[in-house]
Amino acid sequence: MKLARPDVFHPRIVLAGSPQHPRGRREDAGLVAALRARGLHARWLSWDDSATGSADLVILRAAEGPAERREEFLGWTRTVANLLNPPAAIAWNLNDRYLGDIEDAGVPTQPDEPAQTALIFLGGRQSHAFTESGSAEPEFDIWDVGHAALAAAAECVGIAASELLQARVDVNGDRLVSLDLIAPSLGWRRLDADVRGLAQRDFALAVESALHRLGLGPLSHRRP
Fold first, then answer.
1. Domain range holding 72?
2. Domain for residue 71, yes or no?
3. Total domains present in the chain
4. What's the pLDDT score for residue 4?
5. 207-217: pLDDT as tens digits
């Protein structure tokens, strides 16, 4: 574990849950420890807690809520200094037409079919996959569908895929069923302990990379 140094800037990171689940999903219980192992300190708050406004980085991990709060939620995404995923990606993904945008980009969809496999991308890179029964190892062509969907989404929003901290691509065979860029369930509890540990390390590394990209890395702001 990296020890904190008083002369180094330590970004204030919030893992944002929903009003119903202010500490996120039960499966996310290991994220604080995974971040701490990289020398990063985070705390849980509901997205509508005013204290999120003072955070250096906010990672949305749960966004359940009544439909009448949708505009309030979207407004909140635009007030946070550094939100992951970016507000534009969240707003685009909330629009029911997002699948049509991806299909227009040449990615085959099949929205009325049940998902068979969930593909997880962290920091724009493939991390792990799972099914209802546990972890999975999809063939390359299935991962290709996930990469294509992520690239199409990033292009629609006008960002690089690497700017998407977290993404879940649900597929049925070689067709896209759905894409979640808002606060995707990452399937931690479906992975065995070793795979989960490596995947949560991937998450922490992606957060670390995002901090450096945003000029918020631990070595970005030396104190006098």
1. 13-213
2. yes
3. 1
4. 52
5. 999 999 999 97
Q: 3 in a domain, yes or no?
A: no
Beta-carbon count within 10 A of 114 CB: 9
Residue 224 is predicted with a pLDDT of: 43
Is residue 5 domain-resident? no
Residue 149: its H or E element: helix 140-157
| Peptide bond before residue 95 is cis, with ω within 30 degrees of 0 | no
Burial zone of 132 (CB within 10 Å; 0-12 exposed, 13-18 middle, 19+ buried)? exposed
| Backbone conformation region of residue 173, classed left if phi is above 0, alpha if psi is from -120 to 50, else beta | left
d(CA 44, CA 163): 22
pTM metric for this prediction? 0.92
Question: Whole-angstrom Cα distance, residue 186 to residue 166?
Answer: 8
Phi (first) and psi of residue 134, to 5 degrees: 145, -160
Cβ-in-10-Å burial (0-12, 13-18, 19+) of 35 comes to buried
Of 53, 36, 33, 37, nearest in space to 45 by CA: 53
With CA atoms as reference, report the closest residue to 202 among 149, 126, 132. 126
Asked, for residue 136, whether it belongs to a domain, the answer is yes
Which residues, other chains included, contact 208 with Cβ-Cβ below 8 Å and sequence gap of 6+? 38, 40, 217
Instruction: Point out the residues of the chain with pLDDT beneath 50.
Output: 1, 222-224
CB-CB neighbours of 148 under 10 Å: 17
CATH number at residue 206: 3.30.470
Q: Rounded CA gap, 187 and 168, in Å?
A: 9
